[in-house]
Amino acid sequence: MTERYIVIRKGPRTLELHEGNRVLGHYPVAIGKPSTPTPEGIFAVAVKRVHPGGVFGSRWLGLSAPGYGIHGTNNPASIGQTVSMGCIRMHNRDVERVFDLVQVGTRVIIYR
């Protein structure tokens, strides 16, 4: 089976869901503000939660970097901005799609 993985590009503020060499989805995201930047490196999805509540929107994909995750938002106007506490924010409809297509252990690559 071909590996699925997530690539987050901080410069253009995008998240891509890959399956091998194929891009399954391309989504706009918000990232951490300068004082609380989104970490860079190779991580994994460590936990999945439906309806985590509050500012996290409809889904939470917690990363192997403690305290960081990919999640929905209750503030869709923030997508595309550098405004979070380091997490990756997505439109709820987008994070729901990604959530359904990844598993705990899915690799997440974050870079500039």
Automatic annotation (TrEMBL):
| Molecular function in Gene Ontology | glycosyltransferase activity; peptidoglycan L,D-transpeptidase activity
- Please give the pathway this protein is involved in: Cell wall biogenesis; peptidoglycan biosynthesis
Keywords from UniProt, A to Z, are: Cell shape, Cell wall biogenesis/degradation, Glycosyltransferase, Hydrolase, Peptidoglycan synthesis, Transferase
Alphabetical list of Gene3D superfamilies matching this protein: L,D-transpeptidase catalytic domain-like
**What's the Enzyme Commission number for this chain?**
2.-.-.-
Supply the enzyme class, top level. transferase
Coiled-coil intervals, chain numbering: none
Q: Which residues form the active site?
A: 71, 87
Q: Which SUPFAM superfamilies match?
A: L,D-transpeptidase catalytic domain-like
Key word Cell inner membrane present in the record?
no
GO CC annotation? extracellular region
**Every L,D-TPase catalytic domain range:** 4-111
What are the BP-aspect GO terms? cell wall organization; peptidoglycan-protein cross-linking; regulation of cell shape
**Pfam families recorded:** YkuD (PF03734)
Q: What's the superkingdom here?
A: Bacteria
Q: Which protein family is named in the record?
A: Belongs to the YkuD family.
Query: Could you identify this protein by its name?
Result: ErfK/YbiS/YcfS/YnhG protein
Organism from which the protein derives: Acididesulfobacillus acetoxydans
